[in-house]
Amino acid sequence: MLPEISRSMLKNALVLGLFAVATVGTVAAIQQGTAERIAAAEREARVQALAQILPAGSYDNHLLDSSRLVQDELLGNKSPTPAYLATLGGQPSAVILQVTAPDGYSGSIRLLVGVQVDGRLAGVRTLQHRETPGLGDKIELAKSPWVRSFDGTSLSDPDEAGWAVKKDGGQFDQFAGATITPRAVVKAVHKALQYFDKHKAELLAPVETPNG
Q1: What is d(CA 114, CA 36) in angstroms, rounded to the nearest whole number?
Q2: What is the pTM of this model?
Q3: pLDDT digits (tens, 9 = 90+) for 155-170
C-alpha cells in the first residue's frame, strides 16, 4: 500500500510541478509581449510628439536615433535627458530639447523645445503637467494655441525684458486667473534658448547613430 501511495504522491507532485512551470512560462511570455507593445507605443508617441515641433520637410532623419544625453541647470532637469538633432541632407537643421519648468502652479511642467540652427524657436509643446483644468492647462496645444506664441522667437527677439508675461512687462500673454503657469513656461523656454546659445556647437555636432 505504501509504495502505491508514494507513487501517487510523486505523480501528483510532478503534475503540479509541470503545471507551475507552464504557468510561469505563460505569464512570462505574456509580460514580455505586453512590455514590447508598451515600448512600441511609447516610441510611437515620442515620434509623434517630436514631429509636432518641427515644420514638415525641415528634417529627413530619424530623430529618436539621433540624440545625445544632456544635463544643465538651465534645462531644469535633475538627470540627463535626450537632445534630438534634426538634420536635412546631412546638415543640422534644429535641436529638440527636453525642458522642465520646476515652478508651475501645481508642480513641474515638462516641455519639448525645438530650436532651429539660427537660434529661432521652431516650436514648444507640453509633455506633462498637473496644472488646473480650465486654467493652467491652456499650455496644452489641444486646449489653447498659446504655445504657438513662441514660434519664431529667439534669445534676442524679444529682448531680455520681453521674455516675460505681459503682467510682468513682457510680451507673452498670461491666462485669466492663472499667471503662475504661463510665467513658469516662458521662463523655462527662455532658459532653454540660453542653453542652446551656450552649447550650440556641441548640440549641432554629428550624433553617432546605431547604424553609424
Answers
A1: 29
A2: 0.80
A3: 999 999 999 999 999 9
